[in-house]
Amino acid sequence: MAAAAQIEHHASSTGTDNRKLLMWIFLGSECLFFGSLLATYLIFKGEPTTATNDHGLLMIPANLLDIPLTSQSTFVLLMSSLTMVLAVYGAQTNRLKMMKLWLLATIVLGLIFIGYQVFEFTTFGNEGLNPSTNQFGASFFLLTGFHGVHVGIGVLYLGSLLLASFRRTGLGPEAGVHVELAGLYWHFVDIVWIVLFTVIYLIPA
Amino acid sequence: MATAAETIALPTESAYESGIWSWITTVDHKRIGTLYAVTGFIFFLVGGFEAMLIRAQLAVPNGTVIDASLYNQLFGMHALTMIFLAVMPMGAGFFNYMIPLMIGARDVAFPRLNALSYWIFLFGALLLTSSVLFGGGPDAGWFAYAPLTSEQFSPGRNMDFYVLGILTLGVSSMAAALNFAVTIINMRAPGMMMMRLPVFVWMTLIISFLLILALPPLTVALTQLLFDRHYTTHFLDPNGGGDPLLWQHLFWTFGHPEVYVLILPAMGIVSETLPVFSKKPLFGYRAIVFSGIAIGFLGWAVWAHHMYTTGLGPVQQSIFAGTTMTIGIPTGIKIFNWMATMYGGSIRFTTSMYFAVSFLATFTIGGISGVMHASPPIDTQQQDTYWVVAHLHYVLMGGAVMGIFSGIYYWFPKMTGRFLDEGLGKLHFWLFFIGMNMTFFPMHFLGTAGMPRRIYTYDSGLGWDFWNMFATIGSLVITVALLVFIFNFFRSMRTEPNAPNNPWNAPGLEWATSSPPPEHDFDVIPEVRDRDPLWYDRDNGHAPAEPVPGTHIHLPPPSYYPILMALGTLLLAVGPLTHLAITALGIPVIIYSIWGWALEPTD
Amino acid sequence: MASEAEHQEEHHGLQPMQYVKIGVLLTAITVVELGVSYWEAVSHMLLPILFVLSGIKFAIVVALFMHLKFDNPLFTRLFLMSFVLGSVVLTMLTALFWTDATLTN
After folding, report:
1. Which residues lie across from B452 on neighbouring strands?
2. Hey, CA dihedral for C31, C35, C37, C43, is it positive or negative?
3. Are B255 and B297 in contact (CB under 8 A)?
4. pLDDT tier at A11 (50, 70, 90 boundaries)?
5. Partner chains of C (3+ C-beta pairs under 8 Å)
6. How far apart are CA B259 and CA B261, in angstroms?
7. Mean pLDDT (whole number) for B597-603
8. Contact A40/B235, CB-based, under 8 Å?
9. Do C10 and C32 lie in a common domain?
10. Integer Cα distance of B393 and B195 in angstroms
11. Do residues C81 and C53 both lie within one domain?
């Protein structure tokens, strides 16, 4: 019915889409979440440790963090934000092939980032740093671990959208909104990394 | 705009279904509100039972009713039950039922998310409560300070139930808070500007944001505790370079906004009932709203007043003492405005009004003892004594619970179409009021006389015997009060549901529809012209709008994905307590639920 | 529907090439951050410089990629409120620990 099609867009008191409002408020709560993890990291930052590995290497950031390597993964995540915004553009202008292409690109970049994180975590593990080693280990793994989980959830989210877009009805008439919502989440995960990279890797002990 | 497509349900449209499956798959805010309210009240009785055991043990010195280990579980569970499983859900019951009606909407912004919140709450509540059957309830207090909660000092699964239970309940609260924030901001009827919102709606908006922002630090703290207990980290363990105070800081960063989450809804309820039963509009609406907002913000700056005796140092203590005393100001502003509402009014002494007026008095007593706590030197004497128990019960029993009962008597006709008997109601009130004061006022004396909290027994000859016995008798009086209420409830439910739309002659939009409302809430979405819409329309001769015949109201269809997803969440939480395979099972259940939810048609 | 397409056209603020240019800018700032962190001469000013640079990146992604600049001001206010509140509270928390004389740091 023609009337049914009109029911879809309920007017809202502020003219904003309920789902976008939900996502923005949710991202506000995520600021507190990552902020608390970051505060924990900063509280323990610089705490003297005597933990060493079998080769006598002291388990401190200066000896373990590989800034050139992490710069690469930071670049990858940054580029994924670019591909994401292009996917959103495609979805909003009904260029569905463009949307699918850039969604896929974002997913791939996200997976590469996760790959870098896995590599870094295992390298640290081999060098003797794990969550129980010292406070740096505990707070580092908790903070970056939770970030990595968020990236993983983002990959699943985008993957679901991409899969759903291959249905006969695709993502439906509101494809733009759906992809935009995912984009908000994805960009947020990126800006969290911007902060994390600066605080953990660039600022010395 | 949307009104062009609005319709009324023809009388023959799908009857409001009954049967268990319709309740399991409901996405109707009124049903979800009812589920919350009933579940919350049942847990209120559970928490009361836990309290009665405590009082039985403490009635006489060297009591032998409960041993120390069980006592520790009881006071921990009592607080957890009352805070998370009783007061918050009963508040949620009112938010759910009333908020859409009060703002002139047909439902909340996300009906299925609403249902999800309830089912996760129920499963989390059952998880937490089941702990007593599976090794013992959390026995380190509801605030669970480290290092007592470490694996070394709390072997066994008590504290694991704590962590996982609260994480689960937190998801429920977060989802509900997000839902209500969006609903209140975005789904108001035409003309319902923010400064025309009922105070109850404002308070709900504020606590929604409090929860959204305060739950994350708690999540982090709980995760750190879990990791310390099972993954050999040392966040909270001084032997590994950690700091037990980190837990306290993160916990109270959540905990203090949480107590405002507990009281602001009751303040909202009282702001609704006092004007109605004084036949006067609320005095100082703007002041009350802005005070609520101020409390919402200031509440973030006071948390370490729970930690004065942890060696913060004079600078830190002074700062928090200053902020804590400051927060008394907006609270006081509200009290004076409520009193001014009554002044010069034509008071109707209904049971609801009794509870509302009592709120003013008993909450203020709690506020006064609280302001005394704000001073570090005084608090050093009072911390961990029964003085604090007195304070918290005056603000929670004398505040939150009084407010909730005021709301129950007020909104009962709207929700059920029946009236709670006023005679029994007054009996309930007086027994409750007397019992509450008998139980908790002497605790000021006990605290000043040095009786510590959280002790399972005490010796005679310390000067504590008389008031402990007195308090226990008071708690029996409270029990009788609640039995009267329960009797009143069941008796009333057997009467004919023939309450009119607006039995109290109240101004709010929820009274513009039938009692109880039809499934679609309003035949016509009202147009709002004033802060007290129904009084304004009555005084200015505005008749309610006539429904346009032939139009069709679209209601969201029922869904089983919310309960399924809640089940998946429960599996996630149960895994760490038993077998991680169960957690692994929860993941596909959740993914399946999300897909089903996203793809199911909503029209 | 026609009105939906219009709605979508006004919705996004930038064109793809502009997004690419922003991406390049973000990369450039990251390179500067890296360089600065190795540059001995400014090591005593490192913290404020990095703070400002990553702050700029943060703002660019939020305002432009996340569209906050072009969307309803309500979103900006809500997000900023949460972000500022969180930053203040957690800075206070961190400061409490850093100024705590009882820690053996």
Report:
1. B385
2. negative
3. no
4. confident
5. A, B
6. 5
7. 87
8. yes
9. yes
10. 33
11. no
Q: Are B521 and B105 in contact (CB under 8 A)?
A: yes
Domain count for chain C? 2
pTM: 0.94
Residue B235, chain A, CB below 8 Å: the answer is: yes
Return the residue of C nearest to A34 by Cα: C86
Secondary structure class of B539 (helix, strand, coil): helix
pLDDT per residue as tens digits for the range B459-503: 999 999 999 999 999 999 999 999 999 999 999 999 999 999 999
Average pLDDT, chain B: 94
Q: How far is B432 from chain C (nearest CA, A)?
A: 39
Q: Which residues contact B93 (CB under 8 A, 6 or more apart)?
A: B33, B34, B35, B36, B37, B38, B40
Tally Cβ neighbours within 10 Å of residue A65: 17
Angle in degrees, CA B379, B383, B387, rounded to 5: 90
C97 to chain A, any CB pair closer than 8 A? The answer is: yes
Asked if C14 and C65 sit in the same domain, the reply is yes
Same structural domain, C56 and C31? yes
Asked if C102 lies within 8 A of B316 by C-beta distance, the reply is: no
Distance from C-alpha of C62 to C-alpha of C68, rounded to nearest angstrom: 6
Partner B contacted by C41 (CB < 8 A): no
**Residue C50 belongs to domain spanning:** 2-70
- Indicate the residue of C88, C93, C103 with minimum beta-carbon distance to B249: C93
Q: Could you tell me which of B439, B433, B440, B429 has the C-alpha nearest to residue B484?
A: B429
Asked if the Cβ–Cβ distance from B246 to C92 is below 8 Å, we say no
Cα A148 from Cα B33, distance rounded (Å): 37
ipTM value for the complex: 0.94
Do C96 and B213 count as a contact with CB atoms less than 8 A apart? no
- Topology (CATH level 3) of domain A18-44+67-202: Four Helix Bundle (Hemerythrin (Met), subunit A) (1.20.120)
Same domain, C14 and C59: yes
User: Measured between beta carbons, which residues in chain B are less than 8 angstroms from residue A164?
Assistant: 598-599
What would the pLDDT profile of B142-161 be if each residue is shown by its tens digit? 999 999 999 999 999 999 99
